[in-house]
Specification:
Glucose Oxidase, domain 1, binds phosphoenolpyruvate, binds magnesium ion, 31 strands, elongated, 8-stranded parallel β-barrel, 35 helices, D-amino Acid Aminotransferase, Chain A, domain 1, TIM Barrel
């Protein structure tokens, strides 16, 4: 065979060569762990791993295992026969194996496992005779038929479980271990009949056929729906594939000196240094998972089998020392002999992850840099937002699912309008705001709600962006919801939920529940600050925040933001009197009228900017000029139009004409961004005045040197930027001169239109900085509307055209290429240019890593993502350093 696809893990056999990462890539996590344990002389039942590459080939060749690999599998079985002295398919002394999945990164419970493979009607008798334990032999066979039928053929599990329950009832026993050999023998017959009825062919008696079908089933399980969902949630690439481990069986079900269990070297919930786990006597692995009997805590093993316990404790310690991380181990005891079946770095809560990382440093096991790599940045979310009570969550079944748009958990009564959310919350009710989509007017209602659930919109929709900014829980784009605003109800998953009914939503998973699930508040432990300080020491990227209000700025500052990378000024226009002045500005017919309306807005803006400058002090504050199309500030409903016309003193007809005049077929590509300032330079004048006045006032008040950054959005042409910049500079310089103060300020632009990226060399000559608006840049590069893409992206994931939402994880191939190219050309034209990102990608770990490698100076993200970005930036820097050192 030209390429090696199979690797033994047997004592003395030639192991896979490579470091742990390479081993995991080829052998999968489980295979790598088995190989390492075998090499370290630990008691591991011999076996072999069929590599992840074989899985990739299986898919490439049309879901077939080619003959060469099949031949090699049987060759390796011969090797196992030699070691064990048993024969595969033998009637008297059969070799039985387990067939188990194992991807590079563990995906607990997502893929399939088959135990006791190799049994058939003849060899079960042999096994009974050889062991003198017919109960054990028939128990093993009934388990095998059950698992093979379920995993390989998709026969529903429940059919078998019902039969076991019937048998237990008939025999008047509570536990499966109380069933006799005769009972189990009968069950085998019943199970085979179920198989035959379902498959229209008898249960396969040829062990070779059983083995190949089982391996195929494990490969196939890589693509099962739950694995696909898990992969998407955890960003595990589809092309990785899973390895398959074929391992000689160790029998935990062979009597009361046997058993099976799972244990962790440290407590995975708290991180406490203590052996933590449980086991079941006379059982096989799936019993522990299925919870059919209550397992005993691992400490009981000390009394039950002291020697085995002692050996296990030592192995656990050795494994932790070897992998220098908390291990999650599976073991089986067969007639008083301990066998290790698995070891892997254990999954843990965020609190435990921080504690373990810090403890490992204190114990001298790893250094600070290594510790920084040990916590998944996304996990920090759990420390910053409330979560559902874990026990209550287990009992709840979701009725539907949308996008996990803003993390955290929320539970409250359903309301359908932002006004109701405000009112109900004001009288002390907890509410969840359910909307088709949200708009800037809903902001106060959103802030008052525990959480926000929308029917439409993607990861960069208004609801998602604003909720993340506020740190509020949000599930967006739950397209299966049918809302009836009139009746004040919605339907989802066959349930009708009315106003005032309780729902719970999980912004970290996207699930929606029709019951009240209690939440527990966020807890930041003492390790957090210490850990983040290590991260800050190594990172190169600065971390700014997107903040529009003093509250957001304060929150972000507490989380370690080093500046504001994006203040969306339009979010300041919606409250009370401001929106009125804004609307007057929009309906103005002459420049004079417009200037008069703008003059009313000026003091509000200036006040807001002063508050931001005071909080941020000498840290950079980037203020983006008005961006959205003007129609967003006008009403749509008839009654609102009437009310507002009266309020701003125009006729209803005139207001309707203005609204009609502002109508655009595609507002996202319409009259917005810098185009507003090109048509109405007085807007830029007013905003510049507000920014500069605010900076002067705060400089005078605090003695701190405020250096504002003014950011022009949606630029696509250098001359366009120059036009607006000239307005800004003329206005700013005049005010600064009049104030007699020495104040610096910068004028930069967002790069969010592909043409801007492609002409970056020209634009950079007019700009002090570029900030990548990757929400719009993604939208325009893909030609997907950021609010509508959710409708069809699922089909793209299903068909494996895209693996993830490009609005969530930066598309490095396309959009990323524009970023890199424009960063290079921009820097070449203007070496002082600084580079940042302020699209939603600025808080996404993989995108942050990209920004590091693309040579950006900073990332800017919503306040609650600041710690995530800090950690992701540190991890990128360490990876970069290590890669350079390895060269
Ligand atoms: C962007 O387009 O990435 C951006 C930050 O601007 P907005 O989301 O406000 O359009
Ligand atoms: Mg934009």
């Amino acid at each position: 065979m030209s390429h090696k696809f199979l690797y033994y893990f047997t004592e003395g056999s030639e192991a896979f060569h490579g470091d742990m990462t390479q081993m995991r890539n080829i052998l999968g996590g489980k295979g790598a762990g088995l190989a390492e344990m075998t090499a370290a002389g630990m008691p591991v039942p011999p076996g072999f791993t069929i590599s992840t590459e074989a899985c990739t080939l299986y898919y490439k060749e049309g879901r077939q295992i080619n003959e060469e690999i099949q031949k090699d599998i049987f060759e390796h079985m011969k090797g196992l026969e030699k070691i064990t002295g048993k024969t595969f398919g033998d009637i008297n002394n059969p070799l039985l194996v387990s067939v188990r999945s194992g991807a590079r990164q563990s995906m607990p419970g997502m893929m399939d496992t088959i135990l006791n493979l190799g049994l058939n009607d003849a060899s079960v008798e042999g096994l009974a005779k050889k062991t003198g334990n017919p109960r054990f032999a028939y128990d093993s066979y009934r388990r095998f038929v059950q698992m093979f039928a379920d995993v390989v053929m998709g026969v529903p599990k429940s059919l078998f479980e019902e039969e076991i329950d019937k048998m237990k009832a008939a025999k008047g026993v509570k536990n499966d271990i109380d069933l006799t050999a005769e009972d189990l023998k009968k069950l085998v017959e019943i199970f085979k009949k179920i198989y035959e009825d379902h498959e229209h062919k008898p249960f396969p008696q040829d062990p070779k056929e059983q083995l190949i079908e089982a391996v195929k089933a494990v490969f196939r399980s890589w693509d099962n729906p739950r694995a696909n969902v898990y992969r998407k949630m955890n960003e595990i690439p589809y092309e990785w594939g899973t390895a398959v481990n074929v391992q000689t069986m160790a029998f935990g079900n062979s009597g009361n000196r046997s058993g099976t269990g799972v244990a962790f070297t440290r407590n995975p919930a708290t991180g406490e240094k203590e052996l933590f786990g449980e086991y079941l006597i006379n059982a096989q692995g799936e019993d522990v998972v299925a919870g059919i009997r209550t397992p005993s805590p691992i400490s009981h093993l000390k009394e039950q089998m002291p020697d085995v316990y002692e050996q296990f404790v030592q192995i656990a310690q050795r494994l932790e020392n070897h992998f220098k991380d908390m291990q999650d181990m599976e073991f089986t005891i067969e007639d008083g002999h301990l066998y290790m079946l698995q070891t892997r770095n254990g999954k843990r809560t965020a609190t435990a992850a921080l504690k373990i990382a810090c403890d490992l440093v204190d114990e001298g096991m790893i250094d600070e840099e290594e510790a920084v790599l040990r916590v998944d940045p996304k996990q920090l979310d759990a420390l910053l937002h409330p979560q559902f009570d874990a026990d209550a969550l287990k009992k709840a079944t979701p009725i539907g699912r949308g996008l996990a748009a803003s993390p955290g958990a929320a539970c409250g009564k359903v309301v359908f309008t932002a006004d109701d959310a405000k009112e109900w919350a004001a009288r002390g009710e907890k509410v969840v705001l359910v909307r088709l989509e949200t708009s800037p007017e809903d902001i106060e209602g959103m802030a008052a709600a525990q959480g926000i659930l929308t029917v439409r919109g993607g990861m960069t929709s208004h609801a998602a962006v604003v909720a993340r900014g506020m740190g509020a829980c949000c599930v967006a784009g739950c397209g299966e919801i049918v809302v009836d605003y009139e009746k004040k109800q919605f339907t989802l998953g066959g349930k009708t939920i009315k106003e005032g009914d309780y729902i719970s939503i999980d912004g970290s998973t996207g699930y929606v529940y029709d019951v009240a699930i209690p939440t527990v508040p966020a807890t930041i432990s003492g390790n957090f600050g210490r850990y983040m300080a290590w991260a800050d020491k190594v990172r190169k990227l600065k971390v700014f925040t997107n903040a529009d209000t003093p509250r957001d700025a304060k929150q972000a500052s507490d989380f370690g933001a080093e500046g504001i990378g994006l203040c969306r000024t339009e979010h300041m226009f919606f409250e009370g009197e401001r929106i009125k002045a804004m609307r007057e500005m929009i309906v103005a017919e002459t420049t004079e009228e417009r200037k008069k309306a703008l003059a009313k807005i000026l003091p509000y803006q200036q006040g807001d900017f002063e508050a931001l400058f005071e909080i941020m002090g000498e840290r950079p504050v980037t203020i983006r000029f008005l961006d959205p199309p003007l129609h967003e500030f006008l009403p749509t409903k008839e009654e609102d139009i009437k009310e507002i016309a009266e309020e701003i003193g125009v006729t209803v007809e005139k207001l309707k004409n203005v609204i009609a005049g502002l109508h655009e077929f595609n507002p996202m590509m319409g009259h917005r961004g810098c185009r507003l300032s090109v048509t109405y330079p007085e807007i830029a004048e007013m905003q510049t005045t507000a920014v500069i006045n605010a900076a002067i006032n705060v400089t005078k008040k605090t003695g701190k040197k405020i250096e504002p950054r003014i950011m022009i959005p949606l630029v696509g042409e250098a001359k366009e930027l120059k036009y607006v910049k000239d307005v800004v500079v003329a206005t700013a310089d005049k005010i600064i001169k009049e104030a007699g103060i020495d104040m610096k300020y910068e004028v930069g632009t967002m790069i969010e239109i592909p043409r801007a990226a492609l002409t970056a060399g020209e634009i950079a000559k007019e700009a002090d900085f570029f900030s990548y608006g990757t929400n719009d840049l993604t939208q325009m590069t893909f030609g997907f509307s950021r609010d509508d893409a959710g409708k069809f992206l699922d089909a793209y994931y299903d068909k494996k055209i895209y693996e993830s939402d490009p609005f969530q994880h930066l598309d490095q191939k396309g959009v990323g290429r524009l970023v890199k190219l424009s960063a290079q050309e921009g820097k070449a034209a203007n070496p002082n240019l600084h580079l940042g990102i302020c699209g939603e990608h600025g808080g996404d770990p993989t995108s942050v890593e990209f920004c590091h490698f693309a040579g950006l100076d900073y990332v800017s993200c919503s306040p609650f993502r600041v710690p995530i970005a800090r950690l992701a930036a540190a991890q990128a820097a360490i990876k970069d350093k290590r890669a350079k050192a390895a060269k």
